Amino acid sequence: MATGGGRAALSLGLVLLLCALRHEVAAAQRYNAIWSFGDSISDTGNLCVGGCPSWLTTGQSPYGETFFGRPTGRCSDGRVIIDFLAEHFGLPLLPASKAGGDFKKGANMAIIGATTMNFDFFNSIGLSDKIWNNGPLDTQIQWFRQLLPSVCGKDCKNYLSKSLFVVGEFGGNDYNAALFSGRTMAEVRGYVPRVVSKLIRGLETIIRSGAVDVVVPGVLPIGCFPIYITLYGTSNAADYDGDGCLRSYNGLSSYHNSLLKRSLGSLQRTYPRTRIMYADFYSQVTHMIRAPQNFGLKYGLKVCCGAGGQGKYNYNNKARCGMAGASACADPGNYLIWDGIHLTEAAYRSIADGWLKGPYCNPPIQH
């Protein structure tokens, strides 16, 4: 018969065993594949299949130098978020869907310049000549559906229920197209409900195809990016927040994100068996600007690859990364911002971590 002390030791042993098992189960969370949709934040080479076009600045050196040693079509010095998610779950780096090949472990439909809205929308608001609509959301969903038969034959729902889907970020380029064409902030804010609604319809299509675990990132705080601060900077201190970011541009991002979160809540209620995870790009990047050292970085708003020493941010729109007159810093691992509008590999690693374990994904991917 066990003594009091023996029983306590036995109870402690059981608790430790249960904790170990729980840890093992968490560590063993596995996906058979990852499917990614999006724009330049997550493209892993779709625009560079067969070689990067010469006009594409993000396809030139020093892009890709940190990890790949060459440009790969990723808009960073190395890996992007989707690469770190794949590595975490023991999957190969996602191949670009347009490259062909074996997609049994997933594919990346994301492409630089992608918008949420189709060309018809931009045509209807008089921006057809300003947009190079390269694989909007609907087109990426088509690419995804075309490659499914070779991956899962007739039992796709079962296969996809064990996959991780990352849909976005979408919206950034829809707003860029209008803002960079001189549309007023009030006009651009007017497009937000249509953009979010279009994204939700795309998500429904993906969920009906069999997706169960779906990560949906919001948009970034665009008012904090050197390209915006340089192009739209003012002499009025009231236009800036305490982080040095443009209030109205961040207001646009916040509006998109609050509408998206509300719509995702409704979508979650419609599809209770789906696990919809909102990835909070905005909060994390804002926190990284405010306190880079908390994320292992040194610099917040300063650009690593650009016109070194020019202006407050090393940024000159006529000498962007990949163009003549621009060069990369020697220590990109210390920087948040790579080229004025995209982030560094170091930043993307930190963001992937914040999505996997929290607190920047609700619920976190890892459960």
TrEMBL record:
Signal sequence, start to end: 1-27
The reply on keyword Hydrolase is yes
State the UniProt keywords alphabetically.
Glycoprotein, Hydrolase, Signal
Name any one Pfam family assigned in the record: Lipase_GDSL
The GO terms describing molecular function are: hydrolase activity, acting on ester bonds
Key word Cell wall biogenesis/degradation present: no
Member of which family? Belongs to the 'GDSL' lipolytic enzyme family.
Q: What is this protein called?
A: Esterase
- Recorded source organism is Setaria italica
> From which lineage does this chain's organism come?
Eukaryota, Viridiplantae, Streptophyta, Embryophyta, Tracheophyta
Q: Which gene encodes it?
A: LOC101775912
